[in-house]
Amino acid sequence: MSLAFLAFRNMMSKPLNLLLSLLLLVLSVSLVTFVLQLSKQLSGQLDRNIAPFDMVVGAKGSPLQLVLSSVLHIDVPTGNIVMEEAGFLTKNPMVQTAIPVSYGDNYKGFRILGTQHNYLDSYQATVVEGELYTKSFEVVVGSTAAQSLDLNVGDTFMSSHGLASSGIELHEDHPYTVTGLLKPTGTVVDGLLITNLESIWEAHEHETEHGEHEAEIHKHEDEAHEHETEHGEHEAEIHKHEDEAHEHEEEHGEHEEETHKHEDEAHEHKDEREITSLLVKFKNPLAMVQLPRFINENTNMQAALPSFEVQRLMGLLGSGIKTINGIALAILLVSGLSIFISLLKTIRERKQELALLRTYGLGTSQLLWVVFLEALFLTLTGFLLGWLLGRLGIWVASYFTQASYGYNLQLNGFNLFELTLLGVALLITLIATFLASTSIFKLNISKTLSNA
Amino acid sequence: MFILGRQKYVKFLNATVLHLILFLFLHKTFNLIKTSALRFSYANESELTFPDIDLKSGEHLLVLGPSGVGKTTLLHLLAGLLPASNGLVTISDTELGSLNRKALDTFRGSHIGLIFQQYHFIKSLSVYENLRLRQSYPVKSMSRERIDELAERLGFSDNLQKKVMHLSQGQQQRLSIALGLIHKPAVVLADEPTSNLDDANCSKVIELLKEEADICKSSLVIITHDQRVTAHFKNQLTL
User: Fold this and answer.
1) Contact A92, A291 (CB under 8 A)
2) Cis peptide before A306 (omega within 30 of 0)
3) Which of A2, A361, A452 sits opposite B108 (nearest CB)?
4) CA–CA distance, A86 with A94 (Å, rounded to integer)
5) pTM score
6) Residues near B144 by Cβ (< 8 Å), separated by ≥ 6?
7) Which one, of B34, B17, B189, lies nearest residue B113 by Cα?
8) How far is CA A439 from CA A55, A350, A359, in A?
9) What is the C-alpha to C-alpha distance for residues A352 and A329, in angstroms, rounded to an integer?
10) What is the pLDDT of residues A16-37, one digit of tens each?
11) Looking at beta carbons, which residues of chain A come within 8 Å of B105?
């Protein structure tokens, strides 16, 4: 019979003690590993999501909200901006790309994002099945969205108004057709349905025609006035007015070719075409300092820096994470103490058995080994169970983050920190064994065996 | 024998006789247990002095006397559980005082079988596992047959899978005897081995102890004041 078997039996012989020690260990280990994994994966995912863009330009409001809504696709947007107005950014020499995005509809809770093809390039999201959209109301689907919605190439669906899932207000006149499925990227793209900008506009133009036509016209007039004054400001401030004018004409022409329907309104609409925000990548880091300030001070749009906002957000979450980690480490310390005390108790209670083992021919070192193995089993079991519980927590949390943010949490293997944690736990066990086992060295066999 | 030549026959005979003589010679002169001028004192207590013991293999000794004269102390001195304050204990030609702690543990484990007055077991193990553990150290000598044989003869073969604490007092005592004999030690030191046994079991135990000693050519040293035991052993020492 091996000493390991004996140690195992000894461990199992006191189920309540075992349960208490295990519980403390499992609790602390699961808490530490869970919180660490969660924060690491979330911040990793956030970093991946914001990486392609240096600046977001959108309607005035909270900059955090703008980043959350336009880059991370969590929050509701701050409002819309006029595409023309943001247009000057595309011409700025410090800007590498400026991608307009527009959204406001969903299909069963998954957002439909109107944008250009280069949005997909920013996330290296390539089509694995089918092809990219070329016309309005064609859509490519992110991997998790495709899986959850069970969408395949050729499928059609009706979008509904708003960003949250609801069966009401369907855009029944404009069914979307799936033309392609995207590969998994581990970014927000996985949870999006991506189409061109025109689809979003057309879906909503239609809506206004049906609905508050008269009111809309009044609004148009008001906005037109506003627009004129804004243009005036622009003229005074930046000397790109002429360029912009050309652009206006070009787009005007395109628009006429594309949509032959609303000829009367076309002039009005050209100016009114709105996007939710513009996602900007800089060529030059210097732009980080200049452009956001310029936009915030001189336009009625706001510019937000995703990296800055996410850092601020993580700073807020960070203190919470630190607190939980502190609590978990305190529990770990208590569990180390509990293992030490239970070892001490075990040795005291088993003194006679240890003396008996000496008469069987086992040496002091072998007795130490039995005691150490018992503690080792406890530590290993507790650590493994705690680790598994932590991962189970991640698995459960993944459902929530998936449902509310479209974030998929991965179930990773042991990482370096967790192995270090295991090492520390084993070291504590080793020290506890030696501290607790001084009585093994001083064991008086004769006396111990005579006093039953 | 016809196949062997005359010469070969003589050679064979000579070899056999030689072996026999050699065996008897060694056997007779082998000092299994020998003590000289053995003394021991617990802290703050008067010193105990023990008469010299000289047992050859196969010879047994009963130790008698009123309680408190140091019978158990003598047994522990013989087992090397206590260091003598004076004098020597030699078992199988090995002087116990000359061994270091580790060597003494190993020597005791393989040469001595201890049967305690208070029974000691590993409580987390079953009866079978306790016996199995005793077979595993210090030298592995696993034998299921040996366990079954002893359990059969001591009458607890139905209880092998039970936890030791679920045995009756008598069963525990018989298990304790089995633990002292299972590894076929050269010396069996027993402290009141029959105190909790009925007559039937008592005679079973005495018979078993004697038979085991005969087979292994081992010596029994038994502390007792059980009249049922004293009748069976001539060699007695009263402290």
Assistant:
1) yes
2) no
3) A361
4) 15
5) 0.70
6) none
7) B189
8) 67, 11, 17
9) 36
10) 888 988 998 898 899 889 988 8
11) 358, 361-364
pLDDT of residue B10: 62
pLDDT band at B11 (very low <50, low <70, confident <90, very high): low
Give me the pLDDT at residue A236, please: 43
Across the interface, whether the CB atoms of B118 and A356 are under 8 A apart is answered no
- Provide the shortest C-alpha distance from residue A339 to chain B (in Å): 19
Mean pLDDT of A328-353: 85
Per the structure block, which two tokens stand in for A385? 């169970």
Residue A232 phi/psi, 5-degree rounding, is -60, -45
Q: Checking phi first, is residue B106 left (phi over 0); if not, alpha (psi -120 to 50) or beta?
A: alpha
Q: How far apart are CA B63 and CA B192, in angstroms?
A: 10
C-alpha distances in angstroms, A340 versus A347, A424, A436, B235? 11, 14, 7, 52
Beta pairing, strands B112-115 & B187-191 = parallel
What pLDDT was estimated at residue A206? 56
Least-confidence region, from A217-221, B98-102, B215-219 = A217-221
DSSP H or E segment with residue B16: helix B6-29
Do you know the residue count of chain A? 452
d(CA A450, CA A268): 106
CA separation, residue A63 to residues A74, A305, A319 (Å): 14, 8, 21
Residue A110: Cβ within 10 Å count = 23
For residue A243, is pLDDT > 60?
no
| CB spacing of A362 vs B109 below 8 angstroms | yes
Say what percent of chain A tops pLDDT 90.
Answer: 21
Query: What is the rounded distance in angstroms from the CA atom of residue A234 to the CA atom of residue A227?
Result: 11
Render pLDDT for A174-204 as a digit per residue (tens, 0 to 9): 889 999 999 988 888 888 999 998 888 887 7
Pick among B40, B111, B120, B144 to test the A interface (most A CBs inside 10 A) = B120
**Closest residue on chain A to B122 (Cα):** A353
Nearest to B218 by CA among B226, B228, B210, B206: B210
Residues from chain B contacting residue A2 (CB–CB below 8 Å) = 136
> Is the Cβ of B118 closer than 8 Å to some Cβ of chain A?
yes
**Is the CB of residue A356 less than 8 Å away from at least one CB of chain B?**
yes
Instruction: State both tokens at A213.
Output: 């036509």
Distance CA A161, CA A274 (A): 16
Across the interface, whether the CB atoms of A362 and B118 are under 8 A apart is answered no
Nearest to A360 among B76, B109, B117 (CB): B109
Residue A390 has pLDDT above 50, yes or no: yes
Question: Residue A199 has what pLDDT?
Answer: 86
Find out whether A104 and A274 touch, Cβ atoms under 8 Å: no
Q: Give the confidence band of B51 by pLDDT, cuts at 50, 70, 90.
A: very high
- The DSSP code sequence of B113-150 is EEE-SS----TTSBHHHHHHHHHHSSS----HHHHHHH
What tokens were used for A276? 């939710």
Return the structure tokens found at B147.
Answer: 């366990």
DSSP string, A227-285: HHHHHHHHHHH-TTHHHHHHHHHHHHHHHHHH--S-TTTHHHHHHH-EESEEEEEESST
Q: Do B123 and A13 touch (CB under 8 A)?
A: yes
Question: Is residue A452 predicted with pLDDT exceeding 80?
Answer: no
Q: What are the two backbone dihedrals, phi and then psi, of residue A349, each rounded to the nearest 5 degrees?
A: -70, -30
Tell me the per-residue pLDDT of A67-100, one tens digit each, with 9 for 90 and over.
Answer: 988 888 888 888 888 888 888 888 888 889 999 9
